[in-house]
Write a structure and sequence with these properties.
This protein has 79 residues and is of the alpha+beta class. The chain is built from four helices and two strands, in the order H-H-H-E-E-H. The chain has one domain: Glutaredoxin, CATH 3.40.30.10. A hairpin with a 5-residue loop joins strand 1 and strand 2.
Length: 79
């Protein structure tokens, strides 16, 4: 749903220039270790992380586009 409703929108694409995105499969490769490291227990979980590894904001579960954009602004303000 995030792919369809949020990530494909032009508003998201305009806002995304302030972020670097990394999609991780929590069940394969390094995914389980990263889930443990960042305390992820459900999908989807969006973590906004500074280059030094500090989590500045997070979302757990699906949120619609308007709220997702607000959360991106909150993350930008927190970093």
């Amino acid at each position: 749903m995030l792919e369809r409703d949020v990530y494909s929108s032009q508003d998201f694409k305009n806002q995304s220039k302030y972020f670097v995105f990394c999609k991780i499969n929590g069940e394969k490769g390094q995914g389980p270790a990263l889930m443990s490291q960042y305390g992820i227990s459900g999908f989807p979980t969006i973590k906004f992380i500074k280059p030094d590894g500090t989590v500045v904001h997070q979302l757990v579960g699906y949120v619609p586009l308007a709220q997702f954009l607000q959360e991106m602004n909150t993350a930008r303000s927190a970093s």
